[in-house]
Amino acid sequence: MRTHRISAALALTAAIVLTASACGGGDSGGGGNSSPKTLTYWASNQGSSLENDKQVLEPELKKFEAQTGIKVKLEVIPWSDLLNRILAATASGQGPDVLNIGNTWSASLQATGALLPFDQAAFDKIGGKDRFLESTIASAGAKGKDPAAVPLYSMAYGLYYNKKLFQQAGIANPPATWEELVADGKKLTSGDKYGLAIEGGNVSENVHNVFALGMQHGTGFYDASGKPAFDSPEAVAAVKQYVDFLANDKIAAPGNAEYAANQSVTDFATGKAAMLMWQSAGANLKSHGMNPDDYAVVPVPAPAGATGAKATTSMVAGINMAVFKNTKNLDGALNFVKFMTSDEEQKTLNGTYGSLPPVKAAQSDAAFSTPELQTLAGVLAKSAAPLPQVASESQFETLIGTAVKNLLASAAAGKPVTEATVKDELSKAQQQMPAS
Amino acid sequence: MIDRPTAGQEAAPQGAAPARRRLREKFGRGALPYLLLLPALLAELLIHLVPMVTGIVMAFKQLTQFFIRDWSAAPWSGFDNFEVALEFNAPVGKALLHSFWVTCAFTVLSVGLSWLIGVTASIFTQDAFRGRGLLRAAFMLPYALPVFAAVITWSFMFQRDTGLINHVLHDQLHLTSDKPFWLIGDNSFWALLTVSVWKSWPFAFLTLTAGLQNIPRELYEAAALDGAGVWQQIRRITLPSLRPVNLVLVLVLFLWTFNDFNTPFVLFGKSAPQAADLISIHIYQSSFITWNFGQGSAMSVLLLLFLLLVTAVYLFATNRRRGEAE
Fold first, then answer.
1. Is the pLDDT assigned to residue B162 strictly greater than 90?
2. Where are the transmembrane segments (chain B) (predicted)?
3. Does chain B have fewer CB atoms within 10 Å around its N or its C terminus?
4. From B81, which residue of chain A is nearest by alpha-carbon distance?
5. A157-314+392-431 maps to which CATH number?
């Protein structure tokens, strides 16, 4: 009896280890062309639902099949699963042929060695490197290496502001500097209405915003040799500035600290907040019933007179398309990438999703000349910088995003946020980086 | 297990008998049971032992994203991962220790409350009354709901500005001066505990109700004749009779709660607030979010050792006490 129970307990505990450390070896076989008639494609969730994505993509895949005779098996994967699915595919060697990745993960996934490098020859097969905007190529892998992916959809942050609320508060122009933003924000804050909405519980939103602020303060959170420098004075200043919107300036509602399901977009759309820093929010705002005439978009503020990297107002946001190195249909995979990044498909897909084409020729299409997309395209071309393209990027994103989340949570609970508390959180994040 | 072939013998067709005899001759009488156990052993090996050993091996490797394509090529790191995990002055160890204590407190409270509510409810629904079946079915509802749907509903209710909990506490009952946060900050512990107890007590209720059915009614009748009150009956008859059920129940609840991943993950997402940073989430974050699989494996092994130790001590202690009682 006793041994039975112990072995039952053993089995239970073994299952725990299993779940906690599930990971296997795998062969790292090279690619080839042994299966030229089919492709598997993992698409990220761009539309309003996974079903919506299927409806958008299926007709395009049919077109590709008609042109090439290659049948594409599509799977749309939610963002919450995508990175883990990619990791599992990398570890087991059983993955799709072509896949979408968040562009900020490019260097991290590049480091696994599982993705096909886009060298000169590969680029030639899809129509050349020059077709893409430079900043979007920069977010496709580490500097000095062949990109691990090519850009597919692009986005950038802009400052969305409610024209009506600005008028009511007697503010003539949208803010161009942070001082103006805070001053305007204070005028717009009264009762349960706030000047700015932030998505404080969302780790990615946090890190995107403090990254742009970091660039303005003169840090990319990594030093020149590529080592994490999370708790430098510049980084502390950037993070503190962001947290202060809620902590000291009080232009963001304390409740924002727990927002993680796009509630800040809802708050902006329903007039509970007058400003929002977001990437390509247009389609989202429309679905909440906000009249496009009621808002406008300008670049996120920068310090007055800033130039170069210090004038960064957004990270380069977007989705890249990658090919698994061990694909059994290398030519077909590259053919498919060529198809998806063709001018025609770029117009169709980005037009549907409300994103910007990273392909120059497609971006000049009239469909992308709405004031909102014009502004965001300008940001992408002039004042956007990619998140650090280093192998440890995904750790950076989580650790810094979480540090900001913790700081916002304690500010919301009424605890003071000082330079010391900010530095403390950032040092902790720094020390949690695995040595590599 | 060993009985089964005998049971099958009667039904087996005639032709099967010589084959079995041949088997018996070949392996001898004693080997047959082991031979029949072999498939089960193999399955056990594949399903449990191999991954467990893999996990333990990974704990001694410097396994980051650079090596996940071929983790056997990752450099050995000796006890480095364990040292980092156990260095309680440095951030990683400090965070692990913190999450360990949070998990201990959470588990003790959750198991204790679940058991208390379960035993109370099962005693109160013991005697037949009109609508008992319906009530019991209602009690089982949290157990029957998909965890994800249930917990996501809780997370809506715990929202500070729009959630039901604050609406009742603050707007209607005026119990709090300001709307508290439940999903971030220190209160998150209590939010997590509430959901966990809500989720676990029906299991305790189910198990204990089944256990109660086995207590002969005569015992209560005799006790009542001797003048024992309800409380005395519970203490002298119900609880001691439930003892074997309780031993298993508490152990299972402990292991489930200590390792609960779903509840905090759905409630808080990938990074839980510090006050509610359960060890399962913490290890998940160390392995899958920061891509430090070696470190995560080392933490898992430490957790495994701890749980084995607790289980062994628990079984030893309870078995001995039962021996004394008998």
1. no
2. 31-60, 100-125, 137-157, 189-212, 241-258, 297-317
3. C
4. A434
5. 3.40.190.10
